[in-house]
Amino acid sequence: MRSVNYNQKLVVQQIQALKGEKVELSINKGRKKIETFFAVIQTLYPRIFTVSLNDGNENATKTYSYSEVMCGDVVIKPVQKTDA
Prior knowledge:
SH3 type barrels; five-stranded antiparallel sheet; globular
């Protein structure tokens, strides 16, 4: 989901397809600051979704809105599964 998408239903469907999967999130924090981390999409609500990340010894939950994905402030990339 790299390009900007103005269709909320399509964005919600794409995120629903990734629920429970490990993804890479890139968050635009402004002033050329990009925060990138790996997380698992946990819960989907009508206007927002939550992701869970395991940051060292603690589990953290972050919340993002579908509009942040639509305008490109949040970029979600699926993590390729490797068969070892």
